[in-house]
């Protein structure tokens, strides 16, 4: 299948250039950041060749992409050189290599061994077009020397419209791409001016040029089947296999004799993974620090991550994953405690489409670029090759950046629309993980209307240089000690061609007199000083710290007292000398906490509630519910007379009964049942026992059901149940208790008694029916049937042996006889 490669986009864009971020990972490596500009022409103020030299001189590893585009012979002539010799040290490129639209005659990367293709180049939006690890497009090269190139690890190879690179016709791409290389190789419209076959040196069949040193490296041919890597290091001896962890071949059999490592390199050896920073200790069943542990960075194992990276798990990463954040001190990604500080990933210049994304951001993961087209509108080039138009912005919209405190890459300002960068007033740190135009972390130029910076919080530029130039109206900055901001000893500040200091002074545009004038300032006013002449309060320089509400925090630094202090000697609400509202245990607070304290109106000191109020609060120290006492009891005592809670208790339970408290012997506890009691008592309430009970566990006079211990008398209502009574009922008599402390018993009288002093019918006080006197005594027996020897009943219901009817009849007869004879 024939593949097509789209030629360059004929577009002139002003783009940012990720800078060379150089550092030594080992004594032999210098790693530099690449670019990601694709086929776009760039408008930069430095000359092209000089820019490339600054980016890649002495670099051995390009972290990212190597892009060499649109170079002309005049570019070399202007630079006073005949070739790009400063590229000669590059050994590895982690991303893609793009060599396109160059009209110079010869080009070489003589030390390049591996193109990893971790990031691949796709020139069009057509999903069928390959993604390239190496793309060589439309160049005028007669020779393009890659004589040490051994492998293109990932991505396709594209060669198009290179009509004079004749020796490339001899290249064995299987050596570079491995088996099935045809699927990754795209050659079109090239070698058109190769009228004769290119000739290699007699020592080789495949070459990048005619010299012996330009022979292609061959290491995949004739390897024995047991070579699992598919690579061997002696063409004549196919059994000499490379180690399985090797990439791009080897020069010996061990894991330390590889040209590149397919996974990771640790102390010169190729390994499948780095030794982890922590190991599991089976004895302590804990993870412990591994003294030999390392982090993965690119394809190397390192003991510490570079300063511009952060640690996540076992590797060095450019940003923490979602829901993680890195502390300032150690740059280790840890789970956010609650909501993460808002981090915004910004990879394009500020424009009307992304300005809303900055709102609320404290950290920009990427860049802040404010350019001319920010305010005139334009179109954004998308990864798929399409464009999205955007409208012009106004300077006022940049206030969306006011919350930003940290930028991971760089800050660039190049516009004629701004008088101040005050919208970056909270920016504290620029990390410089990627730099603009090779080396700049802060780049402000050709902003002709800029009068002041206003970046009052900026304290640190971790990596990269500062460039502030050709801002012809910019004052105030002449004495700023830029070296105090720049952390890297290899970086400098270039501040030049701004408004002359004497002109600024003549115009009255100078630092405030409260500033230390030798240190400069960010703009006019006492809040713009880089350093204060006397004291600083927040961002403002002041004469002293003697005003109420201020204190001396440190040398030359005032601070505001806590809002609850009228005056103080230090920070916090415990260092107040006078409280604004109330105090609690030596601390000034706005209100006494309702749960445990009330305000003493005389002293404005929060006093503790009675302990029995628990957490329900109070209006005074009293141990009751109501004004001056608890708002509510957890446990309380209910008074029947006042129908209120008259006392709160500390504890109440089945194990701690009401009767165990003083004066509550005749109370029982229960849950609050009525609505009124529920509002005053939360858990349990002591209620008074029945008046007949000395103690109880419920309201009632029955011992079985309510546990009523009788106060006065026990009355047996039935043969099987007794109740407590205050007085014995009628027709009972009192039987003294056999034991002291027990209640006397009410015993029912005999059924013939009307009151009694004992249990029998002879103990009656009066009789219900008949009274029968016992012979020869004054005692009587109550009965409902008189005995046989006294069968008659007298008028007063006494049993007698006299028949009163007969006696009356006899008397009647006598009367008759006496009266009528």
Automatic annotation (TrEMBL):
Domain annotation Furin-like cysteine-rich: ranges: 204-344
Record's protein name: receptor protein-tyrosine kinase
Record EC number: 2.7.10.1
Chief location: membrane
Gene that this polypeptide is encoded by: Egfr
Any one GO CC term of the record: membrane
Subcellular location per the Swiss-Prot or TrEMBL entry: Membrane
Domain Receptor L-domain: 58-175, 360-485
Catalytic activity: L-tyrosyl-[protein] + ATP = O-phospho-L-tyrosyl-[protein] + ADP + H(+)
GO molecular function: ATP binding; transmembrane receptor protein tyrosine kinase activity
Membrane topology: Single-pass type I membrane protein
Keywords attached to this entry: ATP-binding, Glycoprotein, Kinase, Membrane, Nucleotide-binding, Phosphoprotein, Receptor, Signal, Transferase, Transmembrane, Transmembrane helix, Tyrosine-protein kinase
Domain Growth factor receptor per the UniProt entry, residue ranges: 510-623
Listed InterPro entries: Furin-like_Cys-rich_dom, Furin_repeat, GF_recep_IV, Growth_fac_rcpt_cys_sf, Rcpt_L-dom, Rcpt_L-dom_sf
């Amino acid at each position: 299948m024939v593949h097509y490669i789209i030629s360059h986009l004929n577009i002139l864009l002003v783009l940012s250039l990720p800078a060379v971020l150089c550092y030594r990972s080992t004594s032999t490596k210098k790693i530099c950041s690449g670019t990601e500009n694709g086929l776009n022409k760039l408008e930069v103020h430095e000359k092209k060749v000089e820019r490339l030299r600054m980016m890649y001189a002495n670099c051995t590893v390009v972290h990212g992409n190597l892009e060499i585009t649109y170079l002309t012979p005049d570019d070399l002539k202007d630079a006073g050189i005949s070739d790009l010799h400063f590229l000669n040290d590059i050994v590895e490129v982690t991303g893609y290599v793009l060599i396109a639209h160059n009209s110079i005659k010869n080009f070489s990367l003589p030390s390049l061994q591996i193109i990893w293709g971790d990031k691949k180049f796709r020139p069009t939006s057509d999903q069928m077009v390959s993604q390239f690890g190496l793309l060589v497009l439309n160049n005028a090269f007669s020779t393009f020397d890659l004589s040490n190139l051994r492998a293109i690890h990932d991505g396709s190879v594209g060669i198009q419209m290179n009509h004079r690179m004749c020796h490339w016709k001899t290249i064995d791409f299987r050596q570079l791409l491995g088996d099935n290389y045809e699927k990754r190789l795209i050659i079109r419209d090239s070698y058109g001016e190769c009228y004769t076959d290119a000739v290699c040196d007699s020592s080789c069949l495949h070459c990048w040029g005619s010299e012996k040193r330009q022979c292609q490296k061959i290491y995949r041919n004739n390897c024995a089947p047991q070579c699992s890597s598919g690579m061997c290091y002696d063409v004549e001896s196919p059994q000499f296999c490379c180690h399985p962890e090797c990439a791009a071949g080897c020069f010996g059999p061990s894991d330390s004799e590889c040209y590149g490592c397919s996974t990771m390199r640790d102390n010169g050896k190729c390994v499948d993974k780095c030794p982890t920073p922590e190991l599991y200790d089976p004895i302590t069943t804990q993870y412990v620090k591994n003294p030999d542990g390392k982090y993965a960075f690119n394809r190397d194992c390192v003991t510490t991550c570079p300063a511009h990276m952060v640690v996540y798990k076992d590797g060095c990463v450019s940003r923490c994953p979602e829901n993680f954040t890195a502390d300032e001190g150690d740059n280790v990604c840890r789970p956010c405690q609650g909501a993460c500080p808002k981090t915004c990933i910004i990879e394009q210049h500020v424009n009307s489409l992304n300005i809303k994304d900055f709102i609320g951001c404290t950290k920009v993961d990427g860049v802040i670029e404010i350019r001319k087209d920010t305010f005139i509108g334009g179109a954004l080039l998308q990864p798929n090759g399409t464009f999205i138009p955007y409208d012009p912005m106004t300077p006022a919209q940049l206030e969306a950046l006011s919350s930003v405190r940290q930028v991971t890459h760089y800050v660039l300002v190049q516009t004629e629309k701004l008088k101040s960068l005050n919208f970056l007033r909270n920016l504290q740190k620029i990390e410089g993980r990627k730099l603009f135009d090779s080396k700049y972390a802060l780049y402000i130029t050709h902003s002709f209307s800029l009068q002041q910076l206003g970046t009052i919080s900026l304290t640190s530029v971790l990596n990269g240089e500062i460039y502030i130039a050709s801002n012809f109206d910019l004052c105030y900055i002449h004495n700023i000690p830029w070296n105090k901001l720049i952390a890297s000893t290899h970086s400098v500040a270039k501040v030049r061609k701004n408004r002359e200091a004497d002109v600024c002074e003549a115009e009255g545009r100078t630092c405030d007199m409260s500033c230390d004038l030798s240190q400069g300032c960010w703009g006019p006013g006492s809040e713009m000083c880089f350093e204060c002449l006397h004291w600083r309060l927040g961002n403002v320089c002041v004469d002293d710290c003697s005003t109420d509400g201020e204190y001396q925090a440190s040398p030359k630094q005032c601070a505001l007292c806590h809002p609850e202090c009228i005056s103080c000697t230090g920070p916090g609400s415990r260092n107040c000398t006078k409280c604004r509202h109330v105090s609690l245990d030596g601390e000034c607070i706005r209100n006494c906490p309702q749960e445990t304290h009330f305000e003493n109106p005389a002293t404005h000191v929060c006093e503790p509630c009675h302990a029995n109020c628990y957490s329900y609060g109070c209006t005074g120290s009293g141990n009751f519910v109501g004004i001056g006492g608890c708002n509510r009891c957890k446990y309380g005592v209910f008074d029947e007379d006042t129908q209120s809670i008259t006392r709160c208790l500390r504890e109440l339970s089945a194990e701690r009964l009401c009767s165990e408290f003083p004066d509550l012997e005749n109370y029982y506890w229960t849950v609050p049942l009525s609505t009124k009691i529920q509002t005053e008592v939360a858990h349990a309430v002591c209620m008074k026992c029945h008046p007949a009970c000395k103690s109880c566990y419920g309201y009632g006079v029955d011992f079985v059901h309510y546990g009523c211990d009788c106060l006065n008398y026990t009355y047996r209502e039935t043969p099987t149940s007794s109740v407590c009574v205050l007085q014995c009922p009628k027709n009972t008599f009192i039987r003294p208790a056999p034991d002291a402390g027990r209640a006397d018993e009410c015993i029912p009288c005999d059924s013939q008694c009307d009151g009694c002093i004992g249990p029998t019918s002879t103990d009656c006080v009066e009789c219900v029916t008949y009274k029968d006197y016992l012979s020869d005594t004054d005692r009587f027996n109550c009965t409902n049937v008189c005995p046989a020897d006294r069968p008659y009943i007298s008028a007063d219901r006494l049993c007698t042996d006299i028949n009163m009817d007969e006696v009356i009849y006899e008397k009647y007869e006598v009367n008759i006889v006496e009266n009528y004879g």
